[in-house]
Write a structure and sequence with these properties.
mainly alpha
Length: about 160
């Protein structure tokens, strides 16, 4: 399996988009900016909603209504982050593949994404209750912790 992944990474690195991202003086930092902007929008909107479910933000609105208004922004940020992250990854895919910080970040992103989907699907039910259920608070706290872990792991990934 590792050999197959390495072959895919080598192929990704040979694409023209990866070559331009890797070899241009200004493209890699610009793509990083796009990636960080998308992640900031994505994680920022998730954090705001999670803080609402924890009772620390937006208390004037029902939690379900509060969460719903951020859905388009959250998924827009996700798409921008994935686009930028994919270009960054392709520029040095075989190096990222064996980087422990990248592996941890990727795992935490998958866990955070799964957790977010659960929270988003349950937000209407949880947020419509008079009192936010403890399971909602636990899920949103876990989600917040996972995204903080993603940020910490990302800081440890060296530039190409």
């Amino acid at each position: 399996m590792h050999e197959f992944l390495l072959a895919v990474c080598k192929w990704l690195e040979s694409t023209s988009a990866a070559r331009v991202t890797r070899e241009s003086l200004w493209v890699y930092p610009f793509v990083q900016l796009i990636h960080f902007t998308g992640l900031s929008l994505w994680v920022g909107t998730i954090a705001i909603v999670d803080l609402r479910f924890l009772g620390l933000a937006g208390r004037r609105q029902p939690a379900a209504q509060f969460a719903e208004q951020f859905i388009p922004w959250t998924w827009t940020g996700f798409c921008i982050g994935v686009l930028g992250g994919g270009l960054l990854f392709s520029s040095a895919a075989s190096t990222f593949l064996v980087n422990p910080a990248f592996e941890i970040k990727f795992l935490l992103v998958l866990l955070g994404l799964a957790c977010h989907i659960v929270v988003q699907r349950k937000a209407g039910k949880w947020g419509g209750a008079t009192e936010i259920p403890i399971v909602a608070k636990l899920a949103t706290f876990t989600e917040l912790a996972l995204w903080i872990g993603v940020i910490v792991a990302a800081v440890e990934i060296p530039n190409h």
